[in-house]
Amino acid sequence: MQETCPICGGSGLRIVEQPSQDGLTQRFAQPCVCRVERRAARMLDQARIPRRYELCSLDSYETVHKTANPSIAKALRMSRKFAEGYPVETAGKGLLFTGSSGLGKTHLSVSILKTLIAERGATGVFWEHKELLDELRSIYSLRTAGAEGRLLKSVITCDILVLDDLGDITPSDWSWDTTSYILNSRYNENLSTIITTNLANETRASSTSGEPFDKFAEARRAVTRETLGDRIGERMRSRLQEMCVVVEMQGEDFRQRVKRASFA
Ligand SMILES: [Zn+2]
After folding, report:
1. What is the pLDDT of residues 179-204, one digit of tens each?
2. How many whole angstroms from 18 Cα to the centroid of ligand 1?
3. Cα(143) to centroid of ligand 1, in Å?
4. Of 3, 53, 133, 224, which has the highest C-beta tally within 10 A?
């Protein structure tokens, strides 16, 4: 059972007194702190944060591993700076976390999202890129009236969108059109998007050679790791650099380390 708020007695408003210019006391109503907290709790409920990341925070992000690459500590610093500076200093820009899996990109993204919802009253939502497209596709095939529009609108208009694992999808024209529509709409509205990707933030590996008849290009593509440019196209990749501050993370998979340690 919820206890009645001792400050406002459950009304959700508290009366504030302030001296006015003519020397009289002015009284006005302000939302009580309990109302602000309830709203934040509701917003967090709606943010779709995956269960296994529910308890994540910037404070619980571990960077003190002996072998931790300096880029890990830097990523945490940049995350804090972003959360502290939002929304004035961030000015509509987002963050693009890159690096192999297991470095905590999602942990940092979720932590920022939670902080901004709880402390800044922001609205926000978490989506895995693939999951979002699957959801839109299934709504579309069911022809649920208005549902696709409602979902798209919520993703496009929320203050903060976390798009996790960008590029981890089955490529199709529809996927790219939908993704670039979402990203461009948010960019135009000056809304911050936080993105994570395991793909290297590089141009197309296939375009590194200027030779028009490069018979080794195909073979090289096969051995080179696929890049973000390969996967989402150069135009969208360069749009991401405009939209986001790039946070490049390097190093060993923390989870692998923990696994090894416990079986040593
Ligand atoms: Zn209250």
Report:
1. 999 999 999 999 999 999 999 888 87
2. 19
3. 43
4. 133
Two structure tokens written together for 90: 């961030």
Q: Which two tokens stand for residue 165?
A: 């694992």
CA atoms of 106 and 69, how far apart (whole Å): 17
Query: What's the full length of the chain, in residues?
Result: 264
How far away, in angstroms, is 2 Cα from ligand 1 center?
A: 12
For residue 92, which of 161, 32, 39 has the smallest C-alpha distance? Answer: 161
Cα distances (Å, whole numbers) of residue 238 to 218, 228, 258: 24, 10, 36
Is the preceding peptide bond at 70 cis, omega within 30 degrees of 0? Answer: no
Backbone phi, psi, residue 30, to 5°:
-130, 150
Q: What is the pTM of this model?
A: 0.81
- Give the C-alpha separation, 232 to 179, whole Å: 9
- What 3-state DSSP class applies to 18? strand
Which of helix, strand or coil describes residue 249? coil
Give all domains of the chain, ordered by start, each with its CATH number: 37-255 (3.40.50.300)
Higher pLDDT: 210 or 250? It is 250
Contact, 67 vs 252, CB < 8 A?
yes
Please give the distance, rounded to the nearest whole angstrom, from the Cα atom of residue 80 to the centre of ligand 1.
30
pLDDT in tens, 8-51: 998 999 988 888 878 888 888 888 999 888 999 999 999 999 99
Task: State the helix-helix crossing angle for 234-243 and 173-188, rounded to 10 degrees.
Answer: 20
What's residue 170's pLDDT?
84
